[in-house]
Amino acid sequence: MQQILITGGAGYIGSHTAVALVNAGYEPIIVDNFSNSNQDVLAGLEKILGKKVKHYEGDCNDREFMHGVFKENSLKGVIHFAASKAVGESTQIPLTYYSNNINSLIVLLETMKTFGVKDIVFSSSCTVYGQPDELPVKESTPRKDAESPYGNTKKICEDILTDHVKSGAAARVVALRYFNPIGAHPSSLIGELPLGVPANLVPFVTQTGAGIREKITVFGDDYDTPDGTCIRDYIHVMDLADAHVKSIQYLENQQDTFFDLFNVGTGNGNSVMEVVKVFEKVSGKTLNYEIGPRRSGDIEKVWANTDKVSKVLGWTPQFGLEEALRDAWNWQVSLEK
Ligand code: NAD
Ligand code: WQD
Fold first, then answer.
1. Most buried in the list 61, 71, 312, 320, measured by CB within 10 Å?
2. Threshold 0.90, pTM exceeds
3. Where in the numbering of this chain does the NAD(P)-binding domain appear (predicted)?
4. Residue span of the structural domain in which 29 resides
5. Interhelix angle for 104-115 vs 149-166, to 10°?
6. Which of 26, 56, 97, 150 is labelled catalytic?
7. 62 Cβ closer than 6 Å to some ligand 2 atom
């Protein structure tokens, strides 16, 4: 069985990708420092998979630790999720974000080179597009100046990867630009675990539905969109997980020095109010919401052109907004039990 290292594998997207990898016949190996996750996810994975997933607690910036992980295993490839991801926090502690997100990639690429591991799938983000001039946004659409230090780390990491490949290094790289991942594994045994008050829409919605938050504020209804609220491309985390498996398989057939990147979204845009309404439908709850002012730095509307990912990787999403919100809600309910 081929081994795939998942850095940040105890986190939200990494844990779902571990499931998808096992289902596709790979052995995932998790590395995580549990800075934004906890050990419970490993128990959830064991229940879903009926077996333990090999894991190491440690920091991807720790070269010696990473060498130990590579030495002990015969890795076929790496999926690099580990990063700090809170946009607001990144404006408060930018150096921590630059250090964690950029340094960990460099240590990883150097370790891969030392051990002759070529394949890497990198977690990028639609944040690199800012407010694009054309919609739906294509991979070839120019990137904009980053809105936050977090967003800038994603741009810089993409540049590091392209420069590494341009140098002729024996590296095969896929960068995936995720749109807005939501939902949870349908078993409700793993899901998103935001620390403190959620910054993202869907966890805030589900926590409000569960009565943990009194109400949700819709950040602005005066945008240039059909109902005035912002539009995003919400993608089920299991579909996103699958795109990583397809990327790993795609890399297996490429020449030694290779870079490609893909949008991973559904191709559909939904407004904040549509999310609220669909949530009410799938949960049977009436959501207590109010319209508030715009949130500074918000993008008005963005959704993906998915032609490339569907043509080249043969990937198409299996779930829609209803299923994603249903699974997000079931996960929230399971946390209360
Ligand atoms: P997450 O915080 O749930 O998972 C990241 C995991 O990495 C956490 O378990 C954390 O403990 C771990 N980690 C962080 N720094 C580490 C380090 N130095 N060494 C070892 N482990 C470390 O985040 P997520 O939502 O699963 O996101 C995964 C990746 O996808 C991140 O790179 C993120 O920037 C990117 N991304 C996320 C979204 C989103 O909306 N969730 C969108 C676009 C891109
Ligand atoms: C979605 C919509 C809000 C909360 C962020 C990062 C981005 C990417 C994904 C990683 C927006 C509205 C939200 C609330 C609201 N992450 N909203 N009330 O802004 O697309 O992107 O996560 O790369 O980099 O910036 O996602 O979930 O925060 O917001 O009205 O309480 O919901 O204004 O329109 P966003 P989000």
1. 61
2. yes
3. 5-327
4. 3-180+236-265+305-317
5. 20
6. 150
7. no
